């Protein structure tokens, strides 16, 4: 029944390509490879920059040209990518690392934390740790192993969530390429939709606002602008409507977290009078 009702690819339909799945095979492969490539580039970009290979802006242009739904998004992206050439080649890796620490901090920053758990869940602060359980469930269900060079980060770090989506896109492209049962491909597609709706699409929009505000200008300001464009495109492409975390909600939650930490601190932490 699933095969009979899915007469075309839902994502390609958003891009204006319709037809039988068999006729769209190459386009489907190209679309998912492009999405996977973008997720992979951004995952590296938001990891700690150990070397100069951490981010190659121009490598985004070709896959973005395949996936972007809105023409104005392409124009915005091209302007941002062109702007990197004005300063990125002159930056040393030490300067890049300094920028990373300045924006995201050595420890978890409350200004723009790159960890989803800090943004709570629909259940509020009481269910914050559920984020880690949910993510672990996604990773285990689909056989995702976190990249070795990012294994020191928590499962809810932005780079790991983006790496998971890259894995899912490449796996979907592989399934289409090798004529796997469309029901299995539909399971991957459904998993991606749920992950965007409940995770990436929920907290990354606010993360982008916080990071752009903290960075003010330059490397990470430009990178979060690209990330914001891509996340918006993904929600449109996959036709999902995440319930995003809003800043007042986040601030209220952060205040509650700080109060809980103070209230539950051991006696030896209390100031002496």
Overview of this structure, please?
The protein has eleven helices and no strands. It is mainly alpha-helical. It has a single domain, classed as TorD-like (Orthogonal Bundle). Helix 3 runs antiparallel to helix 8 and helix 8 runs antiparallel to helix 9. The radius of gyration is 20 Å and the shape is globular.
Topology, please?
Elements: H1 2-5, H2 10-14, H3 25-45, H4 61-67, H5 71-84, H6 93-104, H7 130-141, H8 158-177, H9 182-215, H10 219-237, H11 247-263
Helix pairs in contact: 3-4, 3-8, 5-10, 8-9, 9-10
Structure at a glance:
The protein is 60% helix and 0% strand.
CATH topology: TorD-like
Overall mean pLDDT stands at: 86
| CATH level 4 superfamily | TorD-like
Sheet/helix structural class: mainly alpha
* Low-confidence region ranges: 1-6, 255-273
CATH architecture: Orthogonal Bundle
Kindly estimate the percentage of residues that lie in beta strands according to DSSP.
Answer: under 5%
List keywords for this structure.
single chain; 273 residues; mainly alpha; TorD-like; 11 helices; 0% strand; disordered N terminus; disordered C terminus
